[in-house]
# Entry
Amino acid sequence: MDEVAGDPGIARAGAAVAARRRELDIKQRNLAKYKIINAGALIAFEKGRSWPRERTRAKLEEVLQWPAGTIATIRYGGPIPGAAPEPPADDGSASLIVDAVDVAMKTFGAAIESLPPDHDPAFPARVTVILADLRKLETVVARAAQRSRGTPDVVLALRTVRRCYDDLMFRAAATPGATLGQRLYVARRRANLSADETAIAAGLPVELVNAVEAGEAAGEADAEVLNRLIASLDG
# Structure
């Protein structure tokens, strides 16, 4: 998933990085000198021809004084820090978002296709990365859908992202290396419970439920409560 030719989201992110770099007067040679990204790779990214690895993006974000994850957020249609507010999605950006999601989903499809067998020791780590990226995409598209009233294509794109995430979470939860969050997500989905309803049933904050499903670790006591709830829902 490092390079995706023709992805309009990459072109958008690359242009934003170039603008921010010029704003801060950061030279290409200095980024190469300090081993952030070499000049060729930076030029290719800023022109929308390649997508840097996650570690490289994190280094760039630090140098550009952006929060972690900003570059990926921009790629998937999110706001550019410091930029003027973008026009509503129904003023033309809706089609851009839909196109970006279409390209992104093809990329995710290829990544999922290349996953090792479910029982392979490498599967849990690989699938966790894809799920994290899908969550980021879902957040951005959901935000766009809220702004794009009267543009059902964005809602359909959101549905596509969520369906892919749902299918992959169910697959991950069925493997020997399934995380607590993956098992919790599948148990509540099978029981037709929302995250809020699950939190009420467990007597825990919904923020904790969401965090655990997103891959964060739970404390020993909370994990015990959630495991009991999963057993109850699956019973």
